[in-house]
Amino acid sequence: MSVQYHNVVPGGRSFQEYVDIFSLSDEDLNKSILGCGDGPASFNCEMNRMGKSVVSVDPIYELDREMIQKRIDETYLEVLEQTRANKDKFIWKNISSVEELGEIRMSSMSQFLDDFEKGKIQGRYIAGGLPELPFADNSFDLALVSHLLFLYSEQLSFDFHVQAIDELLRVASEVRIFPLVDLNSRKSIHLDEIIGLLVSKGYVVSEEKVNYEFQKGGDTMLKIMHV
Length: 227
Ligand SMILES: C[S@@+](CC[C@H](N)C(=O)[O-])C[C@H]1O[C@@H](n2cnc3c(N)ncnc32)[C@H](O)[C@@H]1O
Known about the structure:
Layout: H1 15-21, H2 26-29, E1 33-36, H3 43-49, E2 54-58, H4 65-85, H5 98-121, E3 125-127, E4 140-146, H6 158-171, E5 172-178, H7 191-200, E6 204-209, E7 220-225
Parallel strand pairs: 1-2, 1-4, 2-3, 4-5
Antiparallel strand pairs: 5-7, 6-7
Helix pairs in contact: 3-5, 4-5
This protein binds S-adenosylmethionine.
Residues 2-3, 5, 8-13, 36-39, 41, 58-60, 129-130, 146-148 line the site of S-adenosylmethionine.
């Protein structure tokens, strides 16, 4: 089963948000990194400016810059309005207001858009999507999945999560996923069973607290490693 990208609203996070979300150390930042479902985040672009290596894969990269811009313009205000209407579900600490959230997201997304065409030619933005990724086995040290798996637990089935995580572990030595709550800031209905399954398959699995909380209770990531 493949997810239709138009079902998932884009939202571009910054380099600093990725660092906090995934507890990325200087050593991690020097690894070969896959950003799966990076969409219009500026992580890839900012890492590239620092001379570091990230490949991002996302179905929206099939589109050209204008189409992605259009999609951002269509959904951006709606996302901010939804956030304003559900303000009590978020922690206004790292980000202090809906207006600041809008500024951060817009800045990330415009950095991404300016980098997109060049990055696509350089092979840093690749069109594709879970549960099948266009990479050979063990292509990356670390795969990061921000705001896709577990967040969309109601839209993406348990089986999809299992296949997606298996695929990420095929292409990378280690996988980190954030957040572990769904869109309504409830613990993902798939989480416990997925952890049990991964442990039974022999992976080293841990749920780790991170220095980032925007959705209430969304302050842990899942780390999965080959033995
Ligand atoms: C909420 S956005 C998160 C973007 C970015 N990771 C961030 O944290 O700012 C979810 C992203 O997942 C992408 N997506 C949807 N279905 C996907 C799939 N099957 N495989 C990989 N990415 C997918 C969407 O296109 C979108 O860019």
